[in-house]
Design a protein that fits this description.
By secondary structure, the protein is an alpha/beta fold. It has helices at residues 28-35, 55-73, 93-106, 126-137, 156-165, 187-198, 213-223, 228-237, 248-252, 260-272, 310-317, 330-342, 418-447; strands spanning 40-43, 77-83, 111-117, 120-121, 140-143, 150-151, 154-155, 175-179, 185-186, 204-207, 298-306, 363-364, 367-373, 377-382, 388-398, 406-416.
C-alpha cells in the first residue's frame, strides 16, 4: 500500500486525466472497486521491500488478490513486469517468486502480457544504487563469484517504452516477452562502466567462492544504503545467468535499445542534476505514528527566534540530512549512523533524493518524512534501530514580538520499549544540547542568509 501524499509533488498528479486511488491490494473488494471501469492494469508490485522475511508468500497472496479482483471487475488486460531467469533447481527465490506471480496473474480471465527483464538500469533503483555505492566506496572489492555472471541489463527508458507500446500491439496479449539491452555483460563489466562514468580509478575486484548470499547481503547492507533484507534476495538473484533467449519482442515492437554503459551514464547524469524522480527507499507503506499520548513518552523541546520569513526558515529546515549534513555535530551523526548500520539499520547512507526539496514519504538518512505542511511543519519518524519509537518535529510560528521574525520549535519525542529503551534515552540525553541546539543555530544562520531563495522548495 502506498500513500497518495507521496505523489503530491508530481506534475502529472494534478492532471484532470489522472485519478489517484488508495487501497490495500490484499483487500480484494476494495481493489475490485478501484478497477471498475478500467480496461487495463499494470502490475508493478513487489513485496521484497515490505520487511517480510517470507516475501515470496506475500507476493503470491498479493498476486492472487489482484487476479481475483481483475475477474470481478471484468478487466480486459494485465501488463506485468517480472524477471528473467530459466526455471531450474538453481533459480533464486527472488526470480522464482517473479515467475510464480506471472503464473497466478495468467490464471485470471484477463489477457496477460508479461515482460521478463534482468537488471533495470535507472537512477533511484535499489540495484543501481548497490552498484554505484560499491564502486564509489570500495577501491578494492572482495566479492562473491556472481561478478562473473552474465546478464543483459536494460535501461529504464526502454522498459517504460515497452510497457506503453504493447498497448497498441495486439500480438503482445497472452504472451511472455523477454526484454534486455543490446549487449550481454558481466557484473564486473557493469562495475567498470560505473567506474568510468564516475571518473574513478579502475577498481580491484577479488571474487571469492566462500561469500554466501547471506554474507553478501550484510556486506552490501554495510557499504551501501540498501538494507540487508532487500540486498539478500537481489544478491541471490545475481548468481543466475539472465539473458534474452527469445528475441520475439524486437519483431513485435522493434526498438533500438540503449547500451548499458550509456544507460549508466544517463542515470548518473540525473543523480548529478538532482533529477531523480523516484527512489527505492520511498517505496512501501509509511509506518503509523506511535501513540505518543499513551505510556511513557520522553520529550525534548527547544526553540529559537529567526529573523526571516516562514518560507526561508522552512527551506533551511528542509535541507537537513544527506550531503548538507545536520548543521551541527556531524561527527556524532556519522558515529550514530555507523552504529546503526552495524546492527542492520539503514544508517546515514540512504541520504536524500534531492539536496533541497523533500516530499511526504521520502527518506532523510535514517529518518522518514511522515508529515510536511509547507511552510509550517515537518515531522520525521526514526527508522534507525532503536529500543522504542522516536520522532523529530519542526514547527514554525510567527513571532508575537515581531511580525518579520519566526519562532522555530524543534521537538524530539521518544517512547521507550522496556528497560533498554530507558537506558538508551538517558545515555543520549547528555548529547542533546550539543546536537539539537547546534541544529537550531545552524538553521537560523542558513535561514537568515540573504542568498537563500524560497523558490528552491
Amino acid at each position: 500500500m502506498r500513500s497518495p501524499r507521496k505523489l503530491e509533488g508530481r506534475n502529472w498528479a494534478q492532471s484532470p486525466r489522472v485519478r489517484i486511488v488508495q487501497c490495500d491490494v490484499l483487500d480484494t473488494d476494495a481493489l475490485t472497486r478501484a478497477m471498475e471501469g478500467c480496461d487495463c492494469a499494470y502490475y508493478l508490485i513487489h513485496a521484497m521491500e515490505s520487511g517480510s522475511d517470507d516475501f515470496a508468500s506475500r507476493d503470491r497472496s498479493l498476486a492472487q488478490s489482484f487476479a481475483n479482483a481483475s475477474d470481478y471487475a471484468g478487466l480486459d488486460r494485465i501488463i506485468y513486469l517480472g524477471g528473467l531467469g530459466e526455471l531450474g533447481a538453481d533459480l533464486s527465490e527472488h526470480l522464482r517468486s517473479r515467475r510464480e506471480v506471472e503464473e497466478i496473474l495468467s490464471s485470471s480471465n484477463a489477457s496477460l502480457t508479461a515482460f521478463r527483464a534482468a537488471m533495470i538500469l535507472g537512477s533511484g533503483s535499489a540495484s543501481f544504487e548497490i552498484l554505484r555505492y560499491l564502486v564509489e566506496r570500495l577501491p578494492i572489492m572482495i566479492t562473491p563469484r556472481w561478478v562473473r555472471t552474465e546478464s543483459q541489463p536494460i535501461s529504464v527508458v526502454d522498459v517504460l517504452g515497452y510497457l506503453v507500446d504493447c498497448l497498441n500491439v495486439p500480438e503482445t496479449r497472452d504472451t511472455a516477452l523477454e526484454i534486455g539491452g543490446p549487449r550481454v555483460v558481466t557484473y564486473r563489466e557493469l562495475m567498470d562502466d560505473m567506474t568510468k562514468h564516475l571518473g574513478l580509478a579502475r577498481r580491484i575486484v577479488i571474487p571469492l567462492p566462500v561469500l554466501t548470499p547471506t554474507l553478501s547481503s550484510h556486506w552490501i547492507g554495510l557499504v551501501t544504503p540498501v538494507s540487508p533484507s532487500i540486498a539478500r534476495p537481489l544478491a541471490e538473484g545475481l548468481r543466475n545467468r539472465v539473458v534474452v533467449n527469445d528475441p520475439r519482442v524486437q519483431t513485435l515492437m522493434p526498438r533500438e535499445t540503449i547500451d548499458p554503459s550509456e544507460a549508466i551514464k544517463r542515470a548518473l547524469d540525473k543523480v548529478r542534476t538532482n533529477d531523480v524522480i523516484t527512489r527505492w527507499s520511498a517505496a512501501g507503506p509509511i509506518p503509523g505514528d506511535p501513540d505518543w499520548a499513551g505510556g511513557t513518552c520522553f520529550t525534548d523541546s527547544r526553540d529559537i527566534t529567526i529573523n526571516a520569513s516562514a518560507e526561508h526558515v522552512f527551506n533551511a529546515v528542509c535541507r537537513i540530512g544527506g550531503g548538507h549534513g545536520w548543521y551541527a555535530a556531524d561527527t556524532l551523526w556519522r558515529i550514530r549512523g555507523f552504529m546503526d548500520k552495524i546492527v542492520g539499520g539503514p544508517g546515514l547512507r540512504r541520504g536524500r533524493r534531492d539536496p533541497d526539496t523533500i516530499e511526504y514519504g521520502e527518506t532523510l538518512d535514517f529518518w522518514r518524512v511522515t508529515d510536511i505542511q509547507r511552510p509550517a511543519r515537518l515531522t520525521l519518524l526514526a527508522e534507525m534501530k532503536l529500543p522504542g519509537s522516536a520522532e523529530l518535529s519542526f514547527e514554525i510560528h510567527p513571532s508575537e514580538a515581531d511580525q518579520h521574525t519566526q519562532r522555530l520549535t524543534m521537538t524530539a519525542r521518544f517512547r521507550p520499549k522496556g528497560l533498554l529503551g530507558l537506558v538508551y534515552w538517558y545515555s543520549v540525553l547528555p548529547f542533546h544540547h550539543i546536537v539539537f541546539s547546534g541544529m537550531l543555530n545552524g538553521i537560523k544562520r542558513s535561514a537568515e542568509q540573504p542568498s537563500d531563495d524560497p523558490a528552491t522548495d
